[in-house]
Write a structure and sequence with these properties.
Helix content: 40-55%
Shape: elongated
Strand content: 5-15%
Structural class: alpha/beta
Largest sheet: 6 strands, mixed
């Protein structure tokens, strides 16, 4: 499979911008994708944060299964603040605000002792398409940040006032190099890598293989797949969905797009692709 690497110039610029603006922030919300929390953890961003308090936010929790809850528990067990939410749901605002307040309680106390009136400032960081702007809109009660369902929508920093907080929305930034291609493929599955650079058919084959290993019943229910090689499963999917061209050949491109769309929108059920070993590998636990 073609090596997945994506670190365009605007991301390098964004990393420098975040480094410069961190000194203006009191704490950090590190947004992860609950379906692939280890894969979506950018250790380069974590290193930049230094000693500032961090909330590890497992977003898109409505698309994740119990594996994400186990991951949250493991991160908390290591002494880090962690929470699973679905930022697309208004009900997530209250637990998120409570977690953020708990994170900066000591900072607020110091502000009060000094008579400082300014809001507590959070840097909102993470890789592309984890829902950072959706999170900010949840907290601000409106569409103040630009939102999209593809990687790389936010390109510039945005300060947003949200009650007692000020939030710095930042562009999604990948690690300069994706060393573990197994985790890189999972980022491709969830839409955190620009689709335009991907061989979608290769990604679809890899996703089918991984889903058959972890969630075979989902493929059987959705596409009547009952096993076989990844290519055989791919062809079953295409036939099942009617993606067949003249001469009986499968339309692999349409099949790949349909599979990725089904997976990303939760039509294949809730999932969590990363294990405790993956969390340990990237340094989350």
């Amino acid at each position: 499979m073609k090596v997945i690497q994506w670190f365009p110039g605007h991301m390098a610029k964004a990393m420098r911008m975040m480094e410069d603006n961190l000194k203006l922030c009191d704490a950090v919300v590190f947004v992860l994708d609950a379906r692939a929390p280890a894969s979506s953890y950018n250790a380069r961003l974590a290193d930049m944060v230094g000693g500032k308090p961090v909330l590890y936010l497992f977003n898109k929790g409505d698309l994740a299964d119990g594996g994400a809850d186990e991951a949250v528990a493991l991160v908390r067990r290591g002494g880090r603040a962690a929470l699973k939410i679905a930022a697309s749901s208004p009900a997530a605002a209250r637990p998120l605000q409570a977690a953020m307040e708990a994170l900066v309680a000591q900072k607020r106390e110091r502000f009060a002792q000094k008579g400082t009136a300014r809001p507590v400032r959070f840097l909102i960081a993470g890789i592309p398409n984890t829902g950072k702007s959706t999170l900010i809109n949840l907290l601000s009660g409106g569409r103040k940040a630009q939102v999209g369902d593809k990687a790389g929508v936010t390109r510039a920093k945005q300060w947003v006032k949200c009650g007692a907080f000020e939030l710095l929305d930042t562009p999604g930034t990948m690690p300069p190099a994706l060393a573990d291609q197994r985790l890189a493929r999972r980022l491709a599955y969830v839409g955190s890598v620009n689709d335009d650079i991907l061989d979608k058919e290769e990604v679809a084959l890899a996703l089918l293989e991984e889903l058959w290993d972890r969630y075979p019943d989902r493929l059987t229910e959705r596409y009547s797949i009952t096993g076989g090689t990844p290519l055989e499963m791919y062809e079953t999917l295409c036939v099942r969905r009617g993606f067949v061209v003249r001469g009986g050949e499968c339309d692999y491109t349409r099949g790949a797009l349909a599979l990725l769309d089904d997976f990303r929108k939760g039509r294949l059920g809730r999932v969590c692709l990363d294990s405790a070993a993956d969390l340990q590998e990237v340094g989350l636990i």
